[in-house]
Amino acid sequence: MTTDRPAPRVRRSDDHARGVALPGLLWVPAAAAFALIALPVVGLVLRADWARLPDLLLSESALTALRLSLETAAISTVLCILLGGPLAAVLARGRKRWLRWIRPLVLLPLVLPPVVGGLALLLLLGRMGLLGRVLDTWFGITVPFTTAAVVLAQTFVALPFLVVSLEGALRTAGDRYEAVAATLGASPWLAFRRVTVPLVLPGLASGTVLAFARCMGEFGATIAFAGSLEGVTRTLPLLVYLERETDTDAAIALSLLIVVVAVLVIAIARPRGADGLR
Amino acid sequence: MRLRALAVAGVLLLLVGCGQGSGGSTGADSATLTVFAASSLRDTFTTIGEHFEATHPGTTVRFNFAGSSDLAQQIVQGAPADVFAAASDTTMKTVADAGRTATAPALFAKNALRIAVAPGNPKGIASFADLARPDLKVVVCAEGVPCGDAELKIEAVTGIDVQPVSEEPDVKSTLSKVQSGDADAGLVYVTDVAAAMGTVEGVAFPEAEQAVTDYPIAVVQDSGQAALAQEFVALVTGPAGQTVLQEAGFLAP
After folding, report:
1. In a mutagenesis test of the B interface, which of A4, A34, A123, A245 is the best target, namely the one with the most B β-carbons within 10 Å?
2. How far is A160 from chain B (nearest CA, A)?
3. CB atoms inside a 10 Å sphere around CB A222
4. What is the annotated role of this protein in its UniProt record (chain A) (predicted)?
5. Which residues of A touch B142 (CB under 8 A)?
6. In B129-148, which positions are buried (b, 16+ CB within 10 angstroms) versus exposed (e)?
7. pTM, to two decimals
């Protein structure tokens, strides 16, 4: 401890230089919070079998799961933008009174345990589900156990992340520029495309990153709704859960892979994404 | 500067405090027996636990039901268990190899696979070979999970190639896919069909005898309740426990 003493003094003067009057007491819970996030990851890194790591990560099942995860998460994220973008715009700018009742419902996947979401999807789109029964008997389409089911599950859980970030950005931006565009003769659609969308790009970017990350990590809804089969529905988190049963080293290696992907996503998106979140 | 040192100390204290809290709680409460048991034992062990509490006034039996390999890992990592009942020899061996068993594992039950189908068996599934029919959606447990390994063993013995639509992480998950109607058939244990109480129907098949699962039980090392734990094991392996288990469809060891 004693050898550490000079260092904090220097950093403390840095704080003053920036002119931030931060109550010192905040450091205690802040450090605890950071430790809670960082230490488990440190545990993962320390416990990893680095010698076997390349073999474990380059195994066919791992690569198949990684590819499936990236593909499904990418498709789901695009769906989130195509569906969630307009929903965020409607929620932020729509003038209908009943919209206030819609917003809390949009947040549902955020607060529901994902496995409940998967169960709900099964009750809607499963073979005995409300819609699934019609799809099955009329068109011969069954959704569960397909890659499409994985995408649906991911889109379901990730949509609120995009909608919330984007709606926040839209509200912060306000609609003054659009109003000006309208006085200059721009149609609503033109103003939306040329004024609104560029204005909220940072918010859209941060929402997209959050949605993609959530898709990559999706587990509960997928296992409940889509099942688990290599190359079809077994994404990285499902493979980790399965490997944990038999080969802890493999599970840890795959977990590290997910951490790396997550860190990459955050690193790539941070400059704009962080701004959008503010 | 002092605050920063305080912060570090605070975090350390928190961490140490948490560790002590969870580790020390079992020793403090002398009348609580903690039993880690495979999820397929949920109903039977709950009944046996009630019986144990009735014959040991003042004693509370706490259960942690989960997949055997999960439980084995928790015990190896130092989870405060007094008794471990597994649904496979390999998971018990994991615990024994880590030096975490205090007694030699005793075999107390056996379980066999059965095909779970929708009530009334609408797809007319009559044998293990039927599971290879291309018009069926079949779910099984994944390789590495006891029920999955048993299924693969039967495939190997019979030469029948089942193409499942999903390989589930545990037997209850497999059962639920049949219960929801999304799968036509699922390979689960006899006891799961019995516990499903009419929501699925069981189709017995003779090949199931080729892959019978063993259920071992042992007292965990460093149990604060070694004597009580031993009595619980005796109850499970004794006539009263055996009656409960066999009524639920378990086979005698």
Report:
1. A245
2. 27
3. 29
4. Part of the binding-protein-dependent transport system for molybdenum; probably responsible for the translocation of the substrate across the membrane.
5. 228, 242, 245
6. ebbeeeebbbbbbbebbbbb
7. 0.78
pLDDT in tens, chain B (253 residues): 454 554 444 444 444 444 333 333 344 345 799 999 998 899 999 999 999 999 999 999 999 998 888 899 899 988 899 999 998 898 899 999 999 999 999 999 999 999 999 999 999 999 999 999 999 999 999 988 888 999 999 999 999 999 999 999 888 899 999 999 999 999 999 999 988 888 999 999 999 998 998 999 999 998 888 999 999 999 999 999 999 999 998 999 8
Domains of chain A: 53-277 (1.10.3720.10)
> A215-228, pLDDT tens digit by residue?
999 999 999 999 99
User: Which residue, among A80, A81, A276, has the nearest Cα to A173 in the 3D structure?
Assistant: A276
Q: How far apart are CA A17 and CA B115, in angstroms?
A: 72
Judge whether A251 and A44 are in contact, CB under 8 Å: no
CA angle A13, A15, A19 (to 5 degrees): 110
d(CA B61, CA B216): 19
Please name the helix (run of DSSP H) or strand (run of DSSP E) that holds residue B95, with its range, or none: helix B89-97
CA atoms B25, B29, B30, B36: torsion sign: negative
Q: B11–A127: do the CB atoms touch at under 8 Å?
A: no
> What is the number of other CB atoms lying within 10 angstroms of the CB of residue B47?
17
DSSP H/E element including A148: helix A147-173
Domains and CATH numbers, chain B: 26-110+214-247 (3.40.190.10), 113-211 (3.40.190.10)
Residue range A255-270: mean pLDDT, rounded:
84
Angstrom distance (rounded) from CA B187 to CA B175: 8
A88 touches chain B (CB under 8 A): no
Cβ B169–A1 below 8 Å, yes or no?
no
Q: Are strands B138-141 and B166-168 parallel, antiparallel or unpaired?
A: parallel
A229·B164 Cβ contact <8 A: yes
Report the chain B residue with the minimal C-alpha distance to residue A32: B11
Chain B residues in contact with A248 by the CB 8 A cut-off are 73
Are A1 and B5 a contacting pair at CB < 8 A? yes
User: Taking CA A40 as the corner, what is the angle to CA A34 and CA A41, rounded to the nearest 5 degrees?
Assistant: 90
The contact set of B with A (CB < 8 A) is 1, 3-8, 10-11, 14-15, 67, 69-70, 73, 137, 139, 142-145, 164-169, 173, 177, 180-183
pLDDT of B174: 93
- Chain B residues in contact with A242 by the CB 8 A cut-off are 142, 144-145, 169
- β-strand partners of B62: B34
